[in-house]
Amino acid sequence: MNANLTQTAPTFKTSLFKVMAVYKFAQLPDAAAIVPALEDFCRARAVAGTLILAPEGINGTVAGSPQAIDALADFLLDGAIFAGRLVGAEIKYSAASAMPFLRLKVRLKPEIVTLRAPEANPAKTVGTYVEPQNWNALIERNDIVLLDTRNDYEVGLGTFSRALDPATKNFTEFKDYVATHLDPARDKKVAMFCTGGIRCEKASSYLLSKGFEEVFHLKGGILKYLETVPAKDSRWQGECFVFDERVAVGHGLVEGDATLCRACRHPLTAADRADPTYQQDICCPFCADQPQKHAAATERHRQIELARARGLEHMGDASHNAAKARKMAKQQRAEANRARASGKVG
User: Fold this and answer.
1) Contact yes or no for 316/303 (Cβ under 8 A)
2) Bigger pLDDT: 167 or 246?
3) What ranges does the record give for the region Disordered, renumbered to this chain (predicted)?
């Protein structure tokens, strides 16, 4: 394993899938030429998930066998095609009880995280990194403006106490939030966080370009914090949304309780699933007033059931079965936790 990895990979049972989240802002003017070779490497090892390449770097989350993911990490950091340009990349590992992705996608895009603000260039200027173990002390200071840079549906599952929610639908709206709610003359010290750290690198670069005096961001993002900081010391509330079929993770990066609405793809808490408007695989409180989505979800569910009745495998079966298995596992974990709390088991 390459010594330049920013995190030592945990020990994985052979029955588990290894998940790797990776990003780095780097000069990749040849990104278009790299895409085919990277895709071929992943397909040959049954790696699934999404990797985005752009002239400004790489970003993505993929999963596969531990051996396949280790080989991919070496390919990214030591492979001739990248020629050392990804050394020092932010790489985080976690485990999944089932393959969290249905397919592989390797995409070429203009940006690895879309802000559409050329003045934000993390390869040149970024804010001050704050290690997870130092984060609590920083965000408890009275002179700090704490900002969650993620989108509204992510914030809805969990966030840090006292954090401001920009209520954005996509990252490009972050610029409008800064223009209307923040003032560099007043908000001299801003601390921000996101899922894995990449969005904050660009957001911090953007704020510095707008004249903000001091900008801090959580190194490794929420995921690194949840992995590093003990639950008893944590200032995190709720679960952290992740962009795969696990939906969310909690402390220790264990899979959380949240599920996805199959109609609108909004993450759902137990309270959301208890809402009268919720129908499994059909609709949820967030799309209850969007009948066109209900119709599409209903038809998809009908096609799955028809195919199943004929003894055929429908293209939605893999997603449906994986989601069902994860939901059952989450319910079993919740029941086990309740039993332990009541003293029924040792």
Assistant:
1) yes
2) 167
3) 318-346
Does the pLDDT at position 190 exceed 70?
yes
Could you tell me if residue 190 is inside a domain?
yes
pLDDT at 34: 97
The model carries a pTM of: 0.74
Joined tokens for residue 56: 């400004």
The pLDDT value given to residue 281: 80
In terms of residue numbers, what domain contains 269? Answer: 257-341
Tokens at 197, concatenated: 């750290």
Catalytic sites, residue numbers? 194
Neighbours of 135 (CB within 10 A): 25
Is residue 173 in some structural domain?
yes
Number of domains in the chain: 3
Dihedral (C-alpha) 140, 144, 149, 155: value to the nearest 10 degrees?
A: 40
